Amino acid sequence: MTDYREDDFLREDQDFEDALIYKGVNRQRKRLHVEVTKKPIASAPKPTRKTSYEQSEDVQRWLTMHREDEESAKPPFNPAFLASLRDGPWVRSSLVQFYEDDLITDVVHVVKSGKEATVYCCTAHPSTGFEYLAAKIYRPRMFRSLKNDAVYRFNRAQYDLDGNIVRGRQQRSVQKASNERKRAAQVAHWIEHEFAVQQVLYEGGVRVPRPLAQVGNSILMEYIGDLGDPAPTLQTVTLERAEAQALFDDIIENIELCLAQQCIHGDLSAYNLLYWQGIITLIDFAQGVDPHYNPDVYPLLVRDIERVCQYFSHYGVQARAEELAHAMWQRYLGENA
Ligand SMILES: Nc1ncnc2c1ncn2[C@@H]1O[C@H](COP(=O)(O)OP(=O)(O)OP(=O)(O)O)[C@@H](O)[C@H]1O
Ligand SMILES: [Mg+2]
Fold it and tell me: Bigger pLDDT: 19 or 83?
């Protein structure tokens, strides 16, 4: 009478079992849903059997579960704050993955626009343990031109298109890479590099914002400051003379901690030091260089220390940058001989 096959139902029953087992895996659930709702055979009549099948307890349970999941699905990521921004769509697409991954829930204000990136204050997802997070988003133009790119790439570990460190001739060939795809890959590795460096430093006890995640052109990290009141950079604050020496010593100690983690900041100054409630935090490791691969980077260490000394000299802190750098470098070489 009919060519309807019994094992079509059996297979579907199994699919329902699978659906229950794989609860939470959306793609699979959708695929299974498609499989179970499609007609087993196009021409097959599906009368009473089908009706009773849909009324079965398992099916009802599965449908209810599916409906509940749909209802509890996240609303789309559309921060109201971004609606008024010209580059709102770019910011939204740069952050949506952090939202999907339950790291942020909203974007609340711009912290600051730097030369290469803009930092936004986001409300953190409760599971992160933070109230706010800072998202540093590199601008699209970064994918076309990088400030000081050649200078700094020369001085640090290079990465090929697969993210492996390359040296010598291979390194030069990466530097010469000029087509768009390679260019984009280099910038992507640059941002990955910044995130990776910050992770190593954080774990090594250096006072840097805790990095949480990096996706594409964006880095998500601990936010320093209060809502609407981000930590100022050191060049905008007036310190108490009495606290200057201790802050200076603290920064020098952190520079040495960086070195112990095979990192020289390379662009350290009062512009990349945050000051919040008497505590200094080092930021912006985009140009961090690795002395292990490039022993010629000593001058960058000297320059970092010089800038810090210069800033604190206005508060009467006396220090000789060359001597400090030399002593630090000798200790580093001794430990890495
Ligand atoms: N974790 C943070 N918490 C609070 N504010 C931050 C944080 N990270 C960065 N900022 C603010 O954002 C600004 C820009 O950040 P950063 O220096 O990393 O980017 P940049 O584009 O390299 O900037 P610049 O070119 O000005 O150095 C900083 O000067 C600081 O005011
Ligand atoms: Mg900076």
Answer: 83
